Amino acid sequence: MALELRLDGAVVLVTGGVRGVGAGVTRTFLRAGAEVVTCARTEPERPVCAGDGASTFISCDVRDPKEVDALVEEVIRRHGRLDVVVNNAGGAPYAEAANASPRFHEKIVALNLLAPLAVARAANAVMQEQESGGVIVNISSVSATRPSPGTASYGAAKAGLDNLTASLAVEWAPKVRVNGLDVGMVRTEHSHLHYGDEAGIEAVGATVPLGRLADPDEIGACAVFLASPLASYVSGACLTVHGGGEVPAFLAASNSLVKERKEPV
């Protein structure tokens, strides 16, 4: 029997919640019955919808602490409370560390580490005053725990985000639970920019033990779990969501060697 998670009436803020993984997170919370507010620098052509629910939107550059404070204040003005924050806004284009400018690296760290901290601080100030407290979920990456060539500052920022998650969980307990998701490769509307055409996307998916890239809504389901009462004793954790990870390169190499040895001379 399927166990359905419900968050009826909960007020949820999803940063960067209008496309890609963020849109999947937004859809999943809407299906769970939550009232979802999304934010980004640019308003989408249409709100993210799922089932009978539709998200609302507030423009915000989460790298600016003043805009973040105004964002949270507006959520409270509209809804009277804030139960869950999903720090999803982030990302980085490919750039080798030696060739990218110092300003480039600063922007990547600001978006992927300092911005989540600013949003979390503003949310925590509200949640600490609520009888029910609140939950913060930080969307991190497997790049936090492995080499991240071509996105070195991104990987370093996400490693910092994982540590931040653990630290804030201690500082803000027991009123506020703080957890993270270390996310692997996800199929979004922009997958072709990273992996090429459909054949390229399928080839990359084949390197994952589960045989495919994640769907954004699957990441959303994990965020809903961490925000739900079922995870009431989970705080300071980073849940790895990567389909089993990556098959180690040495295995492919060793298999080739075994094949060569078996071939007749």
Number of distinct beta strands: 9
Stretches with pLDDT under 50, minimum 5 residues: none
Distance between the termini: 57 Å
Strand ordering within the main sheet: 5-2-1-6-7-8-9
- Strand content is 15-25%
Q: Percent range for helical residues? A: 40-55%
Question: Looking at the structure, what is the overall shape?
Answer: globular
- Report the sheet with the most strands, covering strand number, pairing sense and barrel closure: 7 strands, parallel
Q: What integer value in Å does the Rg equal?
A: 20 Å
| SS field, number of helical segments | 8
Chain-averaged pLDDT: 92
User: How would you classify the helix and strand content by structural class?
Assistant: alpha/beta
Succession of helices and strands:
EHEEEEHEHEHEHHHEH
Structural account:
This protein starts with 10 loop residues before the first strand and ends with a helix. The strands form 2 sheets. The protein has a 7-stranded parallel β-sheet, with helices on both faces. A two-stranded antiparallel sheet has the order 3-4. The protein is built from 8 helices and 9 strands. The protein is 42% helix and 16% strand. With 265 residues, it is α/β, with parallel strands linked by helices. The protein is globular, with a radius of gyration of 20 Å. The model has no long low-confidence stretch (mean pLDDT 92). The protein has helices spanning 20-31, 65-79, 102-127, 152-171, 191-195, 198-205, 216-227, 249-262, and strands at 11-15, 35-40, 49-50, 53-54, 56-59, 84-87, 134-141, 176-183, 238-241. This is NAD(P)-dependent dehydrogenase (Short-subunit alcohol dehydrogenase family). Residues 10-204 form the Ketoreductase domain. Belongs to the short-chain dehydrogenases/reductases (SDR) family.
